[in-house]
Write a structure and sequence with these properties.
By secondary structure, the chain is of the alpha/beta class. The strands form two sheets. Strands 3-2-1-4-5 form a five-stranded parallel sheet, with helices on both faces. A five-stranded parallel sheet has the order 7-8-6-9-10, sandwiched between helices. Helix 10 (230-248) packs parallel to helix 12 (277-283). Helix content is 47%, strand content 14%. The protein has helices at residues 18-30, 49-59, 70-78, 95-108, 124-139, 161-166, 177-183, 197-208, 216-223, 230-248, 261-272, 277-283, 308-325, 336-347, and strands at 4-11, 31-38, 64-67, 116-119, 146-149, 186-191, 212-213, 255-258, 289-293, 330-332.
Length: 348
């Protein structure tokens, strides 16, 4: 039997590093259930709400995760999950404002009161005291909350979020590969069949002296002789993201990605009339910059492609889908050298 029924860990996780993971691991070892709360106001670059939720979901699926921002709280109010409009306290707000906010989150959206709060900070005792007072007042019965201090001196994992944000590459040993990959700039190049996409990917990576991420779907198509089944769609999308993560570990500049899981969404819808939810989630992965190759030169048939009309339909679908998702993009026109010039100008 574990020492505590429910534990709490709170952090910005901007980004999530191995110090945070050490703290969460300690809570999981000591508690039957762990609630992990993450919020920040203002945001930090490359550490958006959805990104942090993704990190925690991938690394701690067994924990109850509550990654919130003002939009999440507004949605909760509209759904009736909370009875009043609430906004995040600013990062510079008084400590007790954050402590009371966390107590409120526990009781409204987090499944209830906790018995222990885990921190690596000297303020942990005060945090536990406010939580206990808030829970006791709201529940109408005395409720104790212990503070469990983990590695206060930061000897086990000597790293901070400020250090990582300043130079992710220098601190990559203190980051899970999935987190580090999201801190590397990623440029996504989309386009229909015979739109010069792969040629541009290779040219842009060479011009920048960095790494190109090949299109997994094309490789798999060749390996399987063009005979796909629906289940291949998820495998392709997952492997595309896994390849990005793997190649990000050693790149010296931005990753230049030949398509994304969004391409898989198109082919899944077109070929099977449905899309696996896992593919949809992977397709929501954001990139530092997105380019779309215009279908503005003669279609070239290599024996695997459809036709110019299909290429145009793909192009239109990409633009409509990106617009609907609110993703900014640049359409590149002309021959490869001109597209390369446009892309480099945009990146620099």
């Amino acid at each position: 039997m574990k020492r505590y029924r429910r534990g709490l860990v709170v952090g910005k996780f901007c980004p999530l590093h191995r110090g945070h993971m050490h703290l969460i691991d300690a809570a999981l070892a000591a508690c039957g259930e762990v609630l992990v709360i993450s919020y920040t106001k203002p945001d930090f670059a490359r550490c958006a709400t959805a990104t942090r939720e993704g990190w925690l979901a991938a690394l701690y699926p067994q924990a109850l995760r509550l990654v919130v921002d003002d939009a999440v709280l507004t949605d909760a109010f509209k759904r009736g999950a909370i009875d009043r409009r609430v906004t995040l306290p600013h990062n510079d707000a008084p400590a007790d404002a954050h402590r009371r906010f966390c107590a409120w989150l526990c009781l409204t959206l987090g499944g209830g009161a906790v018995d222990a709060v885990f921190t690596s900070e000297a303020y942990g005792d005060g945090f536990a005291a406010v939580l206990a007072a808030e829970f006791s007042a709201r529940l109408g019965v005395a409720h104790r909350v212990d503070h469990v201090c983990v590695d206060l001196a930061r000897r086990a994992v000597p790293v901070s979020g400020t250090q990582v944000r300043a130079d992710p590459a220098a601190w990559r040993a203190y980051l899970d590969p999935r987190v580090y990959a999201d801190l590397v700039d990623r440029v996504c190049i989309l386009g229909g069949e015979s739109s010069g996409k792969t040629t541009l990917v290779e040219a842009l990576a060479a011009a920048l002296g960095t790494t190109a991420v090949p299109e997994v779907g094309r490789t798999r198509w060749e390996e399987k002789g063009g005979r796909f089944v629906y289940e291949d769609m998820r495998a392709i999308a997952e492997d595309q993201v896994a390849l990005e993560i793997a190649l990000a570990q050693d790149t010296r500049g931005p990753l230049i990605c030949d398509g994304s899981a969004l391409t898989t969404v198109f082919y899944s819808q077109d070929g099977y009339g449905k899309v696996d939810p896992a593919v949809t989630r992977l397709a929501a992965r954001r990139y530092t910059q997105t380019f779309v190759c215009a279908p503005d030169f003669p279609f070239v048939q290599d024996g695997t492609r459809r036709d110019a009309a299909f290429r145009q339909r793909q192009h239109d679908w990409f633009l409509e889908t990106l617009d609907r998702a609110g993703v900014a993009y640049t359409v590149l026109h002309g021959p490869v050298n001109e597209r390369l010039r446009q892309a480099l100008l945009s990146l620099r």
